[in-house]
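Entry type: protein chain
Record version: 2
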Amino acid sequence: MAGNSLANRPPRITSSTPSRSAFTLRTLAAVIVVSIVLLGPGDTALMADKARMSIPDVLVLVLSAGGPFDQVSINYTSEIPKSKAQQDVDQLAKETSWPVRNVRITIADTSTPGSRPSTSSVFEVPRLVNTRDGTLILEPFISVLRRFSSIEVDYLITTPFEFRGLEDFESKWVKVNLTRSGNAYRYRVHVKNADFQQLNLPLTEVSNETADQGRRSPSAVRVVIIVLIALVVALTAYYVVSRFQRR
């Protein structure tokens, strides 16, 4: 009888639908991959490329060749009166007490098709590169030129130099980012609020722990978003599959 009952029992139909746990795991993995693609470093790289391609409102070039004086050039991307460019040089000398010499101010020739009028000042100041401490002077240029929202300060150093200066910095007044290649240092400065008296920029980089925390914060936010999206989608998939298999 037992044999006959076993023989007469209809065969068990095995569903080809994957198990709920396997389906949920695969869904979770897929969502994480997609979320990483959407929220990963691609957008950051794209924004960095746009920042590199953008033209600042004013460009400061400092050439340090090892002599007692450095060559400085302030280049405005639009034409301003020579008197205003001279005021900037005078204000820089006043705020720093630098003995500025050999000042020349020019307005670019616009006879070339497609060229735009622009003003530049060139002068010499005592060395701005501190080879002993490995630092570069930045704040005086920002202070004098803060009426511009986008400032770039480039240092080109032709002598041996071990950099230990400021890299990235942000406050409610300014945001500073440094890129470097060899002994060429480019500071990009975004003036968020020009109503400051003194920036008190540090000459050297903040502690590694603070910098690491600042760099980790955006990544931590992305991780939280990825996990939350994956969790919501996985739970939804689990619920849908459960309802389907009960029918």
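Comment: Residues 2-25, 31-52, 208-225 have pLDDT under 50 and may be disordered.
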